[in-house]
Amino acid sequence: MSFISDFKQFAMKGNIIDMAVGVIVGGAFGKIVSSLVNDIIMPVISIVTGGDGLANFKYVITPGRPADGDLAEIKEVAVNYGVFIQNIVDFLIIAFSIFVALRVIMKFKKQEQAAPAPAPAPSKEEVLLTEIRDLLKEKK
To answer: How much is the pTM?
Structure first.
């Protein structure tokens, strides 16, 4: 087999295609969650915190300074813990959503597994052997 046919066989396996669909849906889901956090949750938090939200929470180590004459610009050095907290909120919402989705999927799978498959009809030999067994029980 050539390299191309090996790759084609690998790429067309069901798991690879399922994974690709999962990555695409996951990317779109990430955008939805980011929008939920940035456009709905963070404005509410900014009302509570009395500012522009968590993104501006930071600890300034070295304040910045604009260029002035012969002095070069100095950029601000800060620990942006507000952005970190916002990313934690994003993660928690995504993790919770995935948890809920997986619980729903597992519930459906359990219902499918719980429904017993109909028993196949007994063969002629099984029917005959059952009758013989029943007749032997009656003789005892």
So the answer is: 0.54
Helical pair 81-114 and 14-36, crossing angle rounded to 10 deg:
130
Domains of the chain by residue range: 3-139
Q: CB count, 10 Å around CB of 45?
A: 16
Element (H, E) at 90: helix 81-114
Residues in the chain: 140
Q: How many CB atoms lie within 10 A of CB 136?
A: 9
Tokens of 71: 């002095």
- Residue 117: how many CB atoms within 10 A of its CB? 5
What CATH fold (topology level) applies to the domain 3-139?
1.10.1200
pLDDT in tens, the chain (140 residues): 688 887 777 777 767 777 777 888 888 888 888 888 778 887 887 788 777 777 778 898 988 888 887 778 888 899 988 888 888 888 888 888 888 888 888 888 887 777 677 778 888 888 888 988 988 888 87
